[in-house]
User: Fold these one by one.
Assistant:
Number 1:
Amino acid sequence: MIVSDPFLYENGTAESIGKSLKGKDVAYFSEIEPNPSCESVDKAAEAARTIKADCVIGLGGGSALDVSKMVSCLVTNVGSIYDYYAGGTKQLQPRTTELICIPTTAGTGSEVTNVGVFTNKKAGIKIPFVTNEFWPDYAILDPELTFTLPPAVTASTGMDAFCHAIEAYWNKDSLPICDMLSLGAMKMILENIKQAYEHPQDMEARGAIITASLIAGISFSQTRTTGIHALSFPITTEFGASHGVACAITLSAFIKISGEKEKEKMLVLANYLGYASINALSEAIEKLMISMNMPVRLSQIGIRESDLEHITQVGLKAAIIQLTPAIMNEETVYALLKSILE
Amino acid sequence: MIVSDPFLYENGTAESIGKSLKGKDVAYFSEIEPNPSCESVDKAAEAARTIKADCVIGLGGGSALDVSKMVSCLVTNVGSIYDYYAGGTKQLQPRTTELICIPTTAGTGSEVTNVGVFTNKKAGIKIPFVTNEFWPDYAILDPELTFTLPPAVTASTGMDAFCHAIEAYWNKDSLPICDMLSLGAMKMILENIKQAYEHPQDMEARGAIITASLIAGISFSQTRTTGIHALSFPITTEFGASHGVACAITLSAFIKISGEKEKEKMLVLANYLGYASINALSEAIEKLMISMNMPVRLSQIGIRESDLEHITQVGLKAAIIQLTPAIMNEETVYALLKSILE
């Protein structure tokens, strides 16, 4: 069963992959919305169980890949995603259905991680589900699949990948091997994202970004993410920003405060990327985002000062926020958000 | 069964690991020589079969780890290593015996590769055996196990790891992800090897080198090595140099010629490591080796001009030599060797 975004079914991409699987019975499920709900997961799982799918192929952005991960597990695990996640107490038994992930955006890295992010409509929040059963068996990268991404999506997903890399790098649980992967991924993204944004069919730039996204995915799948992702969850769920925008919008501010406990390491990063100081890197990132028409102030996406306390509260509930190399409490998080309000 | 170097059995290290495996019957095999022969492998395999080993733990330098890999396969694969390697036509069936590798030198990276190098006494040559069955199930790094390495071994094994990283980096089959790992591993080695050489019990330096060795191992296990390793085989087998010395002795010369097809990429490397040019990097490596009392000229290890043609011939037989980013033929290889004779 090929699980894809509706667009990729309608434009024939899913079917062209299905037809290439000679001698296989292929079914399609394409009712995936952005920030997919648990209800969509259950619906896809029911379809996969009905046909006893022996392989689930996720095709699309993070949403389709994340759904494909959970669906591949639910083929042989009874019940609903709610039984295993968001308060559910059942343990997933080992996945026996093969899982192949083919990203069509270059940003989530979901094709190489053990993470799926789902929106729990009952509780009204978006939270990650982490399990070893989610590591895909295969990831297939084809830069051409990203040629048709609108420039705004190229920008936001590419900056999401950059956030994965930098959050793994400054992470309190960082590892030397992940530092190396993160440094390289960040460099590849900075050197190519503007080109991919302006020239959507540039094979080299597209190839570099999708490769960097995968590499950043390997990196943060070991360390997890930090404050950027923690704050992105309420910004996406409650203010409708895309995941990449919701992450990137706090990136420059987090770069500035990341020097608190990791000054030397952050300076190595800034120098490696060609900047003389941590602040210079922060400013360059903001400038790059502006040049790609990305919002850099919370007010640009409809957030008001009166919302900041709530975003702070929800963000602090995500355990990963404490992997940020800075003190993260009601006061400091509020101050960070306030600094990028207007 | 714990397969170890004799020294590690005699000094009690193997037994202390064996005793920590509470409730397990542990056997020991420690008759491993440097550049292990196929005969030693068969002897160890016979011992493992007799006790029906369900897990083989390799403990030691590259020799012990490489032997442990083949032994773990031969527990359930009938016959001799010669049946599968060096002209043998049998195919290894999937390994069912668990394989754990614990390196006590920081250089081979064997704990994370699918390669074993054995000396075929019948043919008088040392050649690598590559198979997916050799990927260990677990690698365990303990910097303290390297505290007792003599300075000369610290130097030669550390430079071997450096060669793995640089050969993956300039490799014709290089990959972005391996480039990142290699860059980081080379930096860690250059920043720490002298400290580990001079202060054998420096935990931080030892930890950095053994970690870098593992990371370089992951990198070159994807790309394979190049001319340095190809030429090291005859230099070791026929002139008795240790593997690390036999590799490092051609390193500076290979750095100089690697700019032939990879000038830009090699300059990125030189700059990243703090040098203004490829030649400056080459010279710095030679200076570093001299400061650690390593030979940098072939005549220092008893090789005469009349030997160069033979080394050239044998080196050119190794297919990996053609992964070097330079023309490798009788003329160019001879010239390279000649340039570092005296």
Number 2:
Amino acid sequence: MHYPLENIKVLDMTRVLAGPYCTMVLADLGAEVIKLESPGTGDDSRAFGPYIEDESAYFMSLNRNKESFTLNLKNDKAKEIFKELIKKVDVVVENFKPGTMEKLGLGYDVLKELNPQLIYAASSGFGHTGPYSDRPAYDGVIQAMGGIMSITGQKGGEPTRVGPSVADIFSGLFTAIGILSSINKRSFTGVGAKVDVSMLDCQVGILENAIARYFVTGNSPKPEGNKHASIVPFEPFDTSDGKIMVAAGNDKLFGYFCNLIGTPELIKDERFATNPMRNKNYDALRPLIAEQMLKRSTAEWKVALIEAGVPSGPINNVEMVVTDEQVLFRNMIQEVHHPKIGMSHLPGIPIKISGVDDNIRFAAPMLGQHNEKILSEYLGYSKEEVDKLKEGGVL
Amino acid sequence: MHYPLENIKVLDMTRVLAGPYCTMVLADLGAEVIKLESPGTGDDSRAFGPYIEDESAYFMSLNRNKESFTLNLKNDKAKEIFKELIKKVDVVVENFKPGTMEKLGLGYDVLKELNPQLIYAASSGFGHTGPYSDRPAYDGVIQAMGGIMSITGQKGGEPTRVGPSVADIFSGLFTAIGILSSINKRSFTGVGAKVDVSMLDCQVGILENAIARYFVTGNSPKPEGNKHASIVPFEPFDTSDGKIMVAAGNDKLFGYFCNLIGTPELIKDERFATNPMRNKNYDALRPLIAEQMLKRSTAEWKVALIEAGVPSGPINNVEMVVTDEQVLFRNMIQEVHHPKIGMSHLPGIPIKISGVDDNIRFAAPMLGQHNEKILSEYLGYSKEEVDKLKEGGVL
């Protein structure tokens, strides 16, 4: 056994982001993920830009290491095949609007009769229970309703949406954790479970100290800009040609920092002697630091701050990130050969495990690329039978 | 077996956020988590505000469902006890600066000899390998270096730090997934592993389509404000008394929306007939919608948009989130009794699994609260022996 999940077979009915992110994480760790798609169009995100030779780079980045199998689930023969496959897999994952699987006659109650060991995982906007359960949702709606926008943004400014679709991604990760935990339990009990993860619940779960602050003070926190709420100095400063983030998290680091920037007198200044004092006298301290930081370039400060042992870093744009020497050393940007477009660049696998290869195994599939393979391996169909299913509109 | 991880014992050496978030997720699903702390002060975050009766509400929210055990790891007898405990647990988790465990003589190479089944998991700023490995990091530094700030913010505005410490939290979640995957593999091989998760790697892994966009276009994406990069209308609009997020993700939803706001003529207007056209003619369309949205209050639009089937939601502040009827229905705000402060409010558990109780089992521990219990249960110490260790400065 090489990959930690290579014994796990996943039937993946998910589309776009939250669900596909979950199954990508499982696939990256070696699970066999069969991506079930509608014939003709497939996952909606196959149509999302940006494109390379008519193939969606967005789809490619989320669906590497998965196989594509098409089934027209409105067709009775297709439903029969689906039910046969359910008996052969460990996990099914879907991110439909709640009720969709039941309408297809393929709800958890039906599937668990076919395979009592099945782990059925659903990621949805609001969850499978509660008054909002049947509402449609997108990442933007959940970021708005979940509170993260209300505490992100410049001080005094507008609530701000987080750039990446973190409401989807968090839901994908929590769903993966629910699946893996249930697999652990199943190895003792022999019985599967339904995992029900709501994007809105996940947002509540990641609000971090904002919830504690609200319950202690009775006030809703507001956007704090780029400055830490209670540590000083802990924010970006302008340099002669850009910006750099400085995070002097304690008195020792503040001392290193003051010596470096040529203001050792600040260390002994009683207004700035402790972090609570630096918070209190922030308006006096900030300009004194800011004046010094303007004297050198970002590149110069980058080196000097590291040498001085002060936690710090540039505010990288995406180009700087994907060419960063640590990012490259950690194999976090990978070249993957795609059958149609040739070489593509994808984000790597952030979970590094001793003795486990962290290379992406294969590129995202073309629609229906593995129809014959899946039907033959799992259900013993011949090539002729597969061709017949294709002609009949089943695949 | 009730909880999915109740067979898993975790020795938790983590402090503050990324590591404690990881072990909280495991504890919430039933793992027995022994939080190892330094005598006297414990986890740094015990000193982080806000406070309730001198107890940190921040610490409480991250350390529920864990037991506290103090060990002075500079003491030889304490190291001996640590090594005995290592033989009895499944997982050890740490989020020290790389090299710290080796300096203590407790690196992975030492521990795996004591317990070949051990899963050793480390979460660090930059990972245990590579040129930046030994640099200190805080969430703010990693958000800056990892690119998320460069694509978050108002259009044309400053790169913006995400309010919650998402660099820490993502790292905690990926670490949990690495641990659970390795537990699955161990059930076949009988052998443990080292899981090495870097906060910076995780940020690369969640940049989503920003990386694809960069490699296709050669340009680094910029902050897009609160508007979706390629769907129109998909952004917040001002109402007569606030704002509301509208996400009409396709032509059908755009039709529902235009009828609702009293501008059915927009549906047939060829400038707005398809999503690509709405993107192209955004500057003409937005004011026409914005004018209508100003005519009713957020509360009125909230109801009307739901009835019309248009994905939408208010931009909730934290008070609105923690009193939202769906959030409460899903048990996402829980009252937990704390031995010192009485009733406290904590975010609930976002992973709902059939047949598994989703209530928090017990409040965060006082420092060293479980010293006697752990030493007795795991290593058979008597009360007298424990008292002696206390006097000797071991605990």
